[in-house]
Design brief:
The chain is mainly alpha-helical and 125 residues long. The chain has one domain. It has 4 helices and no strands. Helix 1 runs antiparallel to helix 2 (38-58) and helix 1 runs parallel beside helix 4 (96-124). It starts with a helix and ends with a helix.
C-alpha cells in the first residue's frame, strides 16, 4: 500500500472518529436536557474542515483539485463540491466509497441524535 493512500485512510478514520465524538457529546448534552455549547459546535466545524484540508493535502499527488491556492478558504467555501469531485477524478467510482462512509456515518449519528432528543423530550413531558 502506498504511503499517500495509507495516510488518506488514516485521515478518513480520524474524520469519522471526530464525527462520532462530536455526536456522542451532543447526545450526552441532549440526554442531560442541556443545549450544547456553541464552542462545541465551533470546534467540530473547525476540526472537520481542517481534517478535509489535511485529507486533500495527503491526496495532492493524485489530482490537481487537491493543490488549491489557499486550501483553507477553498475548503471552507466549497468542500461539499470539491471533495466528491477530487475523489471521483482521482479514484473513479472507487472514490465514492470513502465519501459514502463519511455520509453514512453522519446520517447514522444524526438519526441517533434525533432519537435521543425525541426520547428525552418525550420523557420530560
Amino acid at each position: 500500500m502506498a504511503e499517500g493512500r495509507k495516510t488518506s485512510i488514516i485521515l478518513l478514520v480520524l474524520l469519522i472518529a471526530l464525527m462520532v465524538v462530536n455526536h456522542v457529546g451532543v447526545i450526552i448534552y441532549l440526554a442531560a436536557g442541556l443545549e450544547p455549547l456553541p464552542l462545541f459546535e465551533f470546534l467540530y466545524t473547525f476540526g472537520f474542515l481542517c481534517g478535509v484540508v489535511w485529507f486533500l493535502k495527503a491526496e495532492s499527488g493524485r489530482s490537481a483539485a487537491a493543490r488549491a491556492y489557499c486550501p483553507g478558504v477553498t475548503i471552507g467555501i466549497g468542500w461539499l463540491f470539491l471533495l466528491p469531485y477530487h475523489l471521483l477524478k482521482s479514484r473513479g467510482v472507487r472514490g465514492l466509497i470513502p465519501l459514502f462512509a463519511l455520509l453514512g456515518t453522519y446520517l447514522a449519528l444524526q438519526t441517533l441524535e434525533v432519537i435521543v432528543d425525541v426520547t428525552v423530550t418525550h420523557a420530560m413531558k
